[in-house]
Amino acid sequence: MFEKIGKYKIRLQIGRGAMGVVYEGFDPVIGRRVAVKTLRTEMFEPRQLPDILVRFKREAQSAGRLSHPHIVTIHEFGEEQGTPYIVMEYMSGTELGHRLESGARFTLDEVVRIMTQMVGALGHAHEQGVVHRDLKPANMFLLEDGSLKVVDFGIARIDDSGFTVLTSDGAVFGTPAYMSPEQVDSFKQKVRNQEPLRPSEANPTLSAVWDNVISRALAKKPAARYETARQFAEARARDEAGQRSKNGGDPGGRVHHGLTRIRGGARRRRGTATSSDDREPVCARQK
User: Which of 83, 219, 269, 282 has the most crowded Cβ, counting Cβ within 10 A?
Assistant: First the structure.
């Protein structure tokens, strides 16, 4: 293990994956704890390494140009003894994906908070010309106080022109299980053709408001979806306010099981539904 990476003192290893190792570090100049993510270059064949290095640097560049309370903060990108590294804010918590897979249940208020913070983060990123391209529970981090951080911009696209187009080779990036219908190959015909389960079918205590909002976000045709993350957030807040007024303050449904109970297309695409900007996975122009 490194004793020091750049100016950062390494305290202990806190994570290891197929591509990299994450350490808890300390910045002696500012006096703060940080996370230092290193790339395991020895794990890749020489022909793979150039693309892997580009992706690793892109993660730092894309997230590094963003400043939002619900997007991980990147402090620095560098190289130590031939090992590339990214220094980011230190976060205590767990991946949303781990919480869901463990069978965690969230109250409706918690779900609304997570959705609102995620959509806000994506809206900010899109306004800065950054498209995540791999939004899923594994790339969302829940802090100990319950707030959300969007992480891992490794395959993000930085688009200074403000428009997103396909690459010259027509490549599509992301995790197939969380892509929009038009991006999925023929082996995912169920996703392309079958309507997802409505939230109220997964949790009968939820009102029809949730069915309307999520159904539009998951529409098969890109033109039928929300155009921006902001539009999605405003629609959800407006419909919820109307429901609260109708129900005397209760939006309908106190415990939301849908995030963990829905399977197949509905659960798969719920992760993308809340990224309803016209350049994230729920829309055609995302790449």
Answer: 282
